Amino acid sequence: MSWTKHTDEIAGLDAPARALLDTLTPMEVPKGTILFCPGEAVKGYVVMLSGQVDVNLIGPNGRDILLYRVAPGQSCIQSTLGLLGGDAYTAEATAETLARLVLIPRDVFFALLDSSPGFRRLVFGAFAERMQSMMQLIENVSFMTVEARLAALILDRSGPDGCLHMTQAEMATAIGTAREVISRRLDKMAQSGSVAHERGVVIILDRSALNELVQGAAF
Amino acid sequence: MSWTKHTDEIAGLDAPARALLDTLTPMEVPKGTILFCPGEAVKGYVVMLSGQVDVNLIGPNGRDILLYRVAPGQSCIQSTLGLLGGDAYTAEATAETLARLVLIPRDVFFALLDSSPGFRRLVFGAFAERMQSMMQLIENVSFMTVEARLAALILDRSGPDGCLHMTQAEMATAIGTAREVISRRLDKMAQSGSVAHERGVVIILDRSALNELVQGAAF
DNA sequence: GAAAGCTATGTGACGTGGTCACACAGACGC
DNA sequence: GCGTCTGTGTGACCACGTCACATAGCTTTC
């Protein structure tokens, strides 16, 4: 009780949940690990402790689109879907950084759901959050131009130095378009003076211009 | 105990859940009623008893896309999102037929979540199902051609007589495209002999041709 | 440190899809 | 019969996705 257990890193859990979860050993996976891929059977419920995992939907042509990102304390909804519906994974999860996580086996998961209000809130909350962001994604993909989504991406993911360190291919995946389109759009945005770009970096020159692009197609 | 209560129409509920739910009065709404629209506050958790409700996402240009359809026994996930996350609705739900439903107020909803495993399963199941279908939707809009989605729609929604009674505008909404595109695609499909179409009706002429169109862009 | 190889990027051509602005036709009321 | 409404057809145009390359910048290897 005096030394730190891994469950301390998960917010909002109650005592019985912690007791059960502390019997599980967290695992560590290196950057680039594919945690699961389409068609694979579900092993259990996954809670992230640290690191960053991206979940992508993969198209037949190899093009893929970022469904959501899993941050520490959050869980991977894909696994829940499988546990509740019995279906296999339809998306692929990749560790973008070194990641630590706990895998909660199927039966422990259900026991916790019944016994721990805190765990229920955790699972429900994760569900609601993902659902919300997936609806946002559908809205973006079907109603916003590539330019607006790209501008939003640049603003969202850029560091405090006003730089975004991503390749065009990564950006394309993140907003669900093709690499070539990113190339052309970046050129256009560079011509208009709102950004500059070179190999692997985009530099923000005019924040307000980017903001206008985002608003432009949003309403 | 001898006469039928409305909760009998909801499968998988246990005794405590039924007892609580039977204190609520189901309501009936006519066809065309808008149950909620973007920005509205969440009133409670909604369970359908009979009828058909469609939930659409609405774009800035008036174009809209069908997120999912709520069938009897199912619940509307939008409301759950609001209850759990506190956010307002971002989509619009319309009764496509006369519909009967129960509205479970916020506090009753949470009481049930804690007390009834059956209710939990109901809510979780609905969640998982919607999530799955939303992922399917994302996959469809971003990786399938309009032609493939249209073919799938015609096969899915047509009656046993091989006819689909929908206007082009309705089809456009259902698969998330514009009306004009439907018009052109239907023409093309009619030229190739797979369907015939007139005002408000599409008649299937060659089922296997349509199936090939669906497969064509799926893999 | 030059050759070889890989990764990131630029570009033209082409087809599909979405938008706009109409024209037109069948259905319905009065 | 005359408007009106709703559903449909069409041409022009632009944004987007795909294919097939060309090029440029890093890295590895000997």
From TrEMBL, chains A, B:
Residues 144-208 form the HTH crp-type domain. It holds the Pfam family cNMP_binding. Keywords: DNA-binding, Transcription, Transcription regulation. Residues 20-130 form the Cyclic nucleotide-binding domain. The keyword DNA-binding applies. One of its GO terms (cellular component) is cytosol. PROSITE patterns: CNMP_BINDING_3, HTH_CRP_2. GO terms for molecular function: DNA binding; DNA-binding transcription factor activity. The keyword Disulfide bond does not apply. SUPFAM superfamilies: cAMP-binding domain-like, Winged helix' DNA-binding domain. This is Crp/Fnr family transcriptional regulator. It comes from Aliiroseovarius halocynthiae.
